[in-house]
Specification:
By secondary structure, the protein is of the alpha+beta class. About 25% of the residues lie in helices and about 35% in strands. It has three helices and seven strands.
């Protein structure tokens, strides 16, 4: 399907978030459940190993997360940005994107994102944060054939 690639501009003002917790192997079942509920894009049981993933919990339950995936030279992709439906509109995804971007900058990289072209609400949020459209893309899915 159609997608967009957004890259940071000088307007992006990153910051760490005190409520963001680093997610790891023990959190995978909750991460997968959140991804299943919110459909942010590809996320498999070992995706968290590609970079730093953080989340926000409410009453002990993971309700929002974001992390790092692709890392071409000088860049890091912010990925799996998602918030449970009942917690949207509270700025949780914004806080996590800014936290992840802050840590990307600490390594000397710049931040980029991919989103489905139809996800206009998320794209508008990313643009307000200081990202700009770099290019339109097409997403494809490859599957290993069954034996």
């Amino acid at each position: 399907g159609g997608g967009v690639q957004l890259v940071e501009t000088d307007a992006l003002r990153t910051r760490p978030d005190d409520e963001a917790v680093v997610l790891g192997a023990d959190d995978v079942p909750e991460m997968l459940a959140l991804v299943e509920r919110t459909q942010p894009g590809p996320f498999a049981p070992r995706t968290y190993e590609l970079g730093r993933y953080v989340g926000i919990r409410h009453e002990g339950r993971l309700v929002a997360m974001a992390g790092e995936r692709l890392r071409p030279t000088g860049w890091t992709e912010i990925s799996a940005v998602c918030t449970d439906a009942e917690h949207r509109g509270q700025g949780l995804a914004t806080r996590l994107v800014l936290d992840v971007a802050h840590h990307v900058h600490e390594r000397g990289d710049r931040a980029m994102l991919h989103a489905a072209e139809s996800n206009t609400g998320a794209i508008a949020v990313y643009e307000r944060l200081g990202f700009r459209l770099r290019r339109r893309t097409m997403f494809g899915v490859l599957r290993t054939p069954s034996p």
